[in-house]
Hints:
Elements: E1 7-13, H1 19-33, H2 39-47, E2 55-61, E3 64-73, E4 81-89, H3 98-109, E5 114-117, H4 124-129, E6 133-142, H5 149-152, H6 158-166, E7 174-178, E8 181-189, E9 192-199, E10 208-209, E11 214-219, E12 232-239
Parallel strand pairs: 4-5, 7-10, 9-11
Antiparallel strand pairs: 1-2, 2-3, 3-4, 5-12, 6-11, 6-12, 7-8, 8-9
Amino acid sequence: MINKQDITYVCKLTSEITDAEMNDFINIFNKVFEHNADKIWFDWKYTDNIYGDSYIVLAYHKDKAIGARAFWRNDIDDNLSYQPCDTAVLKEFRGMGIFTKMTLIALENTKGAFIYNYPNENSRPGYLKLGWSINKCFYLKPVLNKSKLKDESKFIEDDYLVWKFGKSPINKYFYYKKNGESYLLYNREKNIYYILGRFNDKYNDYFTRVESPILFNYTDHKGAINKVFKNKATVVSFNNGIKNESKIDIHISKADYF
């Protein structure tokens, strides 16, 4: 019988965690999701983060690490912002409120920040129950006129582009050139690509060029085409004390899963 009173929680900035705590975080993540994340991944995403420290919450049952949750620093337009991600709870400890407890601890430590996330349909109700709200929805649409790409694609800042995409140790990205503009692409399957934004072409060498891709773009305007292409990304947000929340424009390139 597991006693909740035997569960303790640790919340630290990523610059403060010990090697043992980092390994606990990585090991839980790998065990739950059957990944092979390592220190290189952790350093890229957290230690070398261009915005600064993230928060890591770890749950322990006695001396055993059983849960992990990150509030990943991922600012939007100079607004202090965090994105919850890399959350895992060992199977035998689920249904005990550990996810909620870790979330509340992280929110308490990120007062004054804007919090946002792109949850799937399974986890979205949990966010809404905790007081989050739906911020916006992104809808996929096929690119039928590539000459309009510049007007339909947001620019990705240089430092974010290089860190998040160019130096990623886990994903490979591509680019497409049109009318002198470079567009960052995520390969969905075969010759199908999603556009994540446009970028400064002096960074083209970080990516692999494709010549005649089938392109899909994300838009926050739902149209008739979305009755056919029902794939969408829902963004939820939580105002943890930041001002002018309504002016913060979240972009699809900020999604953790790309």
